[in-house]
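Preliminary data (for renewal application), molybdenum atom complex.
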Amino acid sequence: MHPPSEASFTSRLRSAAVAARVGSWLGICFTIALITGLISHYAQNVVQPVPFPTSPSWGYRLTQGVHVVTGYASIPLLLVKLWTVYPKLLKRPPRGRRAFVVDGLERASIGVLVAGAIFLLASGVANAAQWYPWDFSFRTTHFALAWITIGALVVHIAVKLPIIRHALTHDIDDTTHDRPAATEPGPVSRRGLLGVAALAAAAVVVATVGNTVPAFRRISVFAVRDGEGPQGVPVNKSAAAAGVTGEMVGDAYRLEVVHGGRTVTLTRADLAGMSQRTERLPIACVEGWSATADWTGVRVRDLLDLVDAPQGRDVEVLSLQPSGPFRRTVLQGNFADDERTLVALALHGEPLSRDHGEPARLIAPNRPGVLQTKWLSRLEVA
Ligand SMILES: Nc1nc2c(c(=O)[nH]1)N[C@H]1C(S)=C(S)[C@@H](COP(=O)(O)O)O[C@H]1N2
Ligand SMILES: [Mo]
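Predicted structure:
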């Protein structure tokens, strides 16, 4: 038996005509994912030279929902794309030093592109499923790999531009750029294969979009969050998982508000005795699920006024949670001063359940869910 060579792959479906079309859909998905990903990355930056806006309150919910869904939709498209082109991997390198080097460089750039794309999609899916089989920081790595992958994608498009342009301006059954061996008709037409790819991508969208769009919740079989959880809102990390005990949130509970030399210490009753506001705001997890809820509690600005903290200053937010990356967050000045930003004590009119951050959690408009700190213990203005 001979190992397969490029000539073993004879289907006419594996063609530049199909690859260019599926490739352009993928290119659109990756561009959307890049833009929405950069928005999410920036929203999570502690230092924001241009303040991330607090309005519209659902902005991050939309961009992050789109980010995750485009990532999911890219998976079947990438599989079809790889299927159409992989015989080229087995092609013999050309003779002649210059041609050999150019061919090697092109293969290397495609290697980076394929590895980067697979890594981005796989790590994104694992993250959304809350499965972290790695030690590195997801956000830093996903961000760095995004740039490398997009760089390789730009090189790939530039190298292939003449073929892409020809393919997209000619009939799908055009054979100009077919490999010599690709002469047999496939089980479906090229147009049929494109239809299958588009349908698969659409099916993935329908199966996952219920994470963010409640109307789809019942048919989104792959939605990692089905909208169920205490008080009708999903829970990201439970109190037990965060190491927050009943003792910590009971009578001994205190919220400290600190500025300069001043500290005001508030009990649960003190907080409940302050002027209460209700705001309808979404929780929008970076993992793509989101839910809107009515939150009732004390304006963060009212609390900062207790210690005469000036407007526009960043606030360090601490949780009772003993350890973990999300126990400390920074609330930027424009968020702290927004009148919709609350230390919430109640959700849908009921006191916060333990898993949603009893007795007090942060909720701000247009803020990544990961920064909506639960089980608040301290607000400090430097
Ligand atoms: N202290 C603390 N707060 C936290 C988290 C956490 O792990 N610890 N998880 C965050 C994340 S990732 C999300 S999406 C929201 C979810 O809030 P919920 O569990 O009330 O829906 O809480 C945020 N607040
Ligand atoms: Mo989250």
